Amino acid sequence: MVRIRFSSALSNVTHARETTLEMGECTVKTVLDKLIEQFGPDFERRILDKGEVRRFVNLYVNGEDIRHLKGLDSPVKDADEISILPAVSGG
Amino acid sequence: MSHVIGLKCRECGAEYPAIIQNTCYECFGPLEVNYDWDYISDNISKEKIAAGPKSIWRYADLLPLESEKRIDLGAGFNTLHHADRLGAVLGLDELYILDESVNPTNSFKDRVTSVAISKAIEFDVKAVGCASTGNLAAAVGAHAAKAGLPAYIFIPATIELGKIVQMLIYGPNVIAVEGTYDDANRLASEVADSHPDWAFVNINIRPYYTEGSKTLAYETAEQLNWEVPDHVMVPMASGALLCAISRGYRELERIGLVDRADVRISGSQPHNCSPISCAVRNDCEVVPVRNFETVAHSLAIGNPADGYYAKKTILDSGGYAAMPSDTEIIEAIHLLARTEGIFTEPAGGTTVAGLKKLVESGHIQHDERVVVYVTGNGLKAQDTLLKSLQRPPVIRPTLSEFEQLITPRLDIQEQASAPLVHT
Questions:
Q1: What pairs with residue B152 in β-bridges?
Q2: Nearest to B263 by CA among B321, B322, B319
Q3: Which of A1, B93, B209, B281 is deepest in the core (most CB within 10 A)?
């Protein structure tokens, strides 16, 4: 079971702060495809731009930014936790 | 009637009311404060500013507060030093330093925090917080104490001891997180998102918070008799400060307080953590950095949220970016202290070292009027700086021992006190 936590900025499309998916071993891209299937094009438009993660979206697998892993090809396995957050940091 | 219309997405332009929100629900872009510029233009004047308080609140007409209740510990209204001795060493005819080390908690973060905590009170929140590399933590701790609000502060566990001591004294809840600033920031973002009645200054009320940094531009122009510099040098971590300073100059032009805003804006980051500087120098995307080690802890942000905008601001203005080494940063701290009597932390050293490098490379011209923003105090980083200094020799309290010690140094000191010339 993969656990996905959503930023409150996505609440208007996910209507929940988290969800779980039975995925087995897969990639972040596979998880996103499944979420797009579930939440529709409004969800996709907020997260992806021409198939790539938007500049101001941060995706984490167990707290690690996927930009430091293999991007959308980063591996995901059972019991992993994915967070989708806006890119906000520093000052 | 208010001078604040609401919030607006920097990417798609979607508008929102002025609430606790940092992200566009349509495109995930960052939000900024949307002002009624006609209203502001009709209600602001140089005379009104001059008669205002001796703090950032003299520019209240340009800040996003709608009530009069402010948490003002006295941030801002700092001296713009004419840095003639440092200018002579670097080969600059007209160099100024805005010294932010003298703010209430000894960094520029008091400006942004005073705005943010005052806004948090408008929102009637139950607590405040931040993610911080140290300077913001102290500022939030102090302003939260004055406001009587609990504070939750997330820091990377590895920052300077001096900064940890300073933040603890104000009594906030300090949570030291394993990993880098980016790890502490991610956790703080999730905490802020889980507590809608908590205001994390640089996270969920960030659009208001960053407005405080614009006052650095306002203050510079006011002290230059409402003229702007030709070139400014800014330290970069997230890039938000550089963008806010640029915005500040443009706003002054928009409301007619200065004649022009074509200020060239350059930035500096430590070599070992320089995602924005690399992007500027190579004209490429800002690529986040995961693992880094630098003495400039307060600039050590590997994934700078405003990096994209900072790079664009620099290149659009005709500026450039530097990335000095840790050794150059420490040397620049010594140089600034010994020429201008200003003791800065490694972030300030990064800025001065960056200035030196850009003058040497010709990106900053010797006849430009240059302003450098020195954003933090060296007393916060004593453990880092002690390694670059020799402890003083100990002698017995006799005149002969003093003379024996000092005679070999007299020639050197005479040379050092000679007037500095261009090199």
A1: B129, B173
A2: B319
A3: B209
Average pLDDT of span B200-209: 96
Q: State the Cα–Cα distance between residues B170 and B37, nearest whole angstrom.
A: 38
- Tally of helices (H runs) and strands (E runs) in chain B: 16, 13
Residue-wise pLDDT for B216-246, tens only, equals 999 999 999 999 999 999 999 999 999 999 9
Contact residues for B26 (Cβ-Cβ < 8 A; gap 6+): A46, B9, B12, B14
Split at pLDDT 50, 70, 90, the class of A55 is: confident
Predicted TM-score (pTM) of this structure: 0.93
B201 touches chain A (CB under 8 A): yes
- In order of start, what are the domains of chain B with their CATH numbers? 4-46+108-209 (3.40.50.1100), 80-107+210-386 (3.40.50.1100)
**pLDDT of B305 strictly over 90:** no
Q: CA nearest A49: which of B298, B10, B29?
A: B29
CB-defined contacts A:B, below 8 A: 102
Based on the number of CB atoms within 10 Å of its own CB, is A24 exposed (0-12), middle (13-18) or buried (19 or more)? exposed
Closest Cβ–Cβ partner in B23, B201, B288 for A86 = B23
Query: What pLDDT does B75 receive?
Result: 98
pLDDT for B411 equals 65
Strands (E), B157-229: 173-177, 198-200
- CB-CB neighbors (< 8 A) of A89 in chain B: 131, 181-182, 185, 189, 202, 238, 301, 303-305
CATH topology for A2-86 is: Ubiquitin-like (UB roll) (3.10.20)
Residue A79 one-letter amino acid? A
- Of B23, B133, B308, which is closest to A9 when you measure between CB atoms? B23
Query: Closest-CA residue in chain A for B182?
Result: A89
Length of chain A equals 91
Rg value, chain B, Cα: 22
* In chain A, where the domains are located: 2-86
Locus of tokens 């010994």 = B338
What's the CA gap between B350 and B164, in Å, rounded? 21
Kindly list the distances between the CA atom of residue B182 and the CA atoms of A8, A75, A78, B39, in Å, as whole numbers in the listed order.
20, 21, 25, 39
Cα B406–Cα B409–Cα B415 angle in degrees, nearest 5: 140
State mean pLDDT over B27-44: 95
pLDDT at B417: 60
The reported pLDDT for the residue numbered B44 is: 97
Is the predicted pLDDT of residue B422 greater than 70, yes or no? no
Show Cβ contacts of residue B145 under 8 Å, excluding neighbours closer than 6 positions: B151, B170, B171, B172
Count of alpha carbons within 13 Å of B370, Cβ hemisphere only? 31
Q: How far is CA B372 from the centre of its chain?
A: 11
